[in-house]
């Protein structure tokens, strides 16, 4: 199976588990790490809005908890007609574990709509290498 298809399947499965009673906007994300393992996360909202967790942050936490340290690719899945790209905070979270050329696949219910590199979504970014 194509790695992007695997990511899409994982994101779709976890999107259904999102806790989104306030926005009713469920998002799923799946990461392929440097060892080929897939880690998924969904958005988790909180009554003390906007306290909550984005799907991408959940997937990153799952990756780190599972022993992964580098994002080889990530897929973000949301409903609706507009592209559901990572928010600014999640772009920076992704940057912590990804290279500028890391693919970020943006998907809708029927599949990938567009693929960006991290550098396209977060140009001239600050990351761990700036602290070396």
TrEMBL record:
Catalytic activity, reaction form: cytidine + H2O + H(+) = uridine + NH4(+); 2'-deoxycytidine + H2O + H(+) = 2'-deoxyuridine + NH4(+)
GO biological process assignments: nucleobase-containing small molecule metabolic process; pyrimidine-containing compound metabolic process
Organism per entry: Methylobacterium tarhaniae
A GO term for molecular function: identical protein binding
Pfam families linked to this entry: dCMP_cyt_deam_1
Protein family membership: Belongs to the cytidine and deoxycytidylate deaminase family.
Annotated active site: 56 (proton donor)
KW Iron (keyword) present: no
General function of this protein: This enzyme scavenges exogenous and endogenous cytidine and 2'-deoxycytidine for UMP synthesis.
Principal EC category: hydrolase
Domain of life, source organism: Bacteria
PROSITE patterns linked to this entry: CYT_DCMP_DEAMINASES_1, CYT_DCMP_DEAMINASES_2
Gene3D superfamilies: Cytidine Deaminase, domain 2 (3.40.140.10)
CDD domains named in the record: cytidine_deaminase
Cofactor: Zn(2+)
Catalytic activity, EC: 3.5.4.5
Residues annotated as binding Zn(2+): 54, 87, 90
Record-level GO cellular component terms: cytosol
Name of the protein: Cytidine deaminase
NCBIfam families recorded: cyt_deam_tetra, PRK05578.1
Binding site residues for substrate: 43-49
CMP/dCMP-type deaminase domain location: 2-129
PANTHER family given in the database record: CYTIDINE DEAMINASE (PTHR11644:SF2)
Keyword flag Ubl conjugation: no
Alphabetical keyword list: Hydrolase, Metal-binding, Zinc
